[in-house]
Structure prediction request, 334 residues.
Amino acid sequence: MNKPKYTNNYGLPLSLAVWLLDDGYDHAAVSDPYTFSVTEIIKPVRQIILGRRVNALPPEQQMQPDIIGLFNARVGQSVHSAIENAWMSEKLPDLLHMLGISKHVGKSIEVNPDPSNSNPDAFKLYMEQRRTVKINKKYSLTGQYDFNFDGQLEDFKFTKTYAIMSGVNDDYYIKQGSCYKFIFPDQIIEDTTRISFLFGDWMASRAYGDYPTVAIDSKIFPLMSKFQTQQFITQKFTDIHTYFNADESALPECNSEELWKDKDVWKYYKNPASTARSTKNFDNITEANLRLAKDGGKGVVKTVLGKVKACKYCKAFPLCTQKDRLLLSGQLEI
Prediction:
């Protein structure tokens, strides 16, 4: 019997296990070694290069993830399919009419129209569009966006409330949308991207302050200029070419932002004999040492390195020695 590609350590029923394994992603679009997807090139170069090498490992050398790790991706995929089906439905004019929108408007929407046979006065709706463009003689960039109504790009994210509150992925959203516009300049007209969030962890009891009011929210982000986007894509493919066959040790390391690293903390203890609880925490060593000097230099300052989180979700994990060093330092906990 062949080694299973996934484990089912939580004993999920076969009905759900098969659903989790049903990946609707078009892997054939990036099967060429010199074609990279939009979602790929936004990642750090180390992750891009090593991620490709992990995929090329024989099955016995690859990690054996559990199918529960596919849950968020599969729910997100299901959301995308449901939204697409609703907008493809013959009932679309009636559905829009329930919102006070004229049925005439609903009937005038063209879904994924053929430019050669399209009414110039109709509203254009494009969904799940994929296109591949050449970057140079050797490399290509491919991308498939979610939703584009009348020139406004929109992406749907099944995520946690932390994503919108912290802004941790804002730069990712902007670069993703900018790359899509680079690939589809004829379809994406607006200079913004709308991200619609569907929160898997939303709780009504926490809905105050900066916390989302309801379980679905959206936010508009400005896209990079055409020049900035071209610079970003050109530089990323230059880096990919430079390190395509480089040894793992020569690959640039992921920085603090890419590692989703917490800030380092300098903990000051006025009484070195009592370190159960710090006297005060500082976000830089200079201020911590000033407090130590002010108190006569009898205390102690301890550096607590910020924890990193991104490695846990990185496909390059098996081949990456940077993560080994982070494990040894205690910054990464598995």
